[in-house]
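Supplementary Methods S3. Input chains for the assembly prediction are listed below.
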Amino acid sequence: MVGERYVPTKKELEEALIKRHSLSVQEKIAKGRVAIAGLGGLGSNIAMMLARLGVGELFLVDFDQVDLSNLNRQCYGVRHLGVKKTEALQAQIKEVNPYVQIKTKTIRVTEENAVELFLEYPIVCEAFDQAENKAMLVNTILQHCPNIKIVSGSGMGGYGSSNEIGTKKVMNNFYICGDLVSGIEKNYGLMAPRVQLCASHQANMILRLLLGIEEE
Amino acid sequence: MRVNGVEIQLENTMSLSKFLLEQGYDLKRVAIERNGAIVPKGMISQILLSPEDTLEVVSFVGGG
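Predicted structure tokens for the full assembly:
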């Protein structure tokens, strides 16, 4: 039955997820709508985890295309080199769960367009690379969109202890994951293990929010 | 004044932006909550701090 051309039906896939996650949990996850701003080391891995959970709708936003320097930590392969990250990620999500609703926008997020882009989403995941862009998005959303919860990543460079990476609710509607200090400014390289640890913290916080848990 | 959970003595009346710069923050990389409300970027230099204020300052670092 399971062969190269076999694609499970929506019902089969939902049943498999319910079996793993339980019905009451999966009902909430399936209603989830999450926007991901930035599809690099954090965003690409977070999106794949949310797709595996069976989150109902994902909105993927990035202006860039896949580069050779991304392969050390981002969820792309050689076959995606030169492809827009929005398209490369959408294709991979479809392989994991063909029934996640995916919207994409290949655009650079700015102070001017952020509110319009993300206004409809109750949860926004900040997954940019540059500190200034992280601050811009968090400030813009917190200031103008009081109903949006934002889950951000800051400090995941290098190969320091895994145990320094955490999740913290720092303000109303604002959660931050990472060790808060290991930035690229200090010449820490970005490597898969700690980047994915941080991505996992963000994905799990988003899952908790979908389940109605607001503590860090 | 309380900043990120730590009591700090305010010696002079001072704007929020001056305080943050003196503490070594890069204003382009921070998000600030003052007394439970996010501080709009344009207000950082206009707000005068009071000893009763509670601040949460988050400073972002790069990488993702």
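Chain B has a mean pLDDT of 95. The interface with chain A takes residues 26, 28-31, 33, 36, 38, 40-41, 56, 58-64 of chain B (CB under 8 Å).
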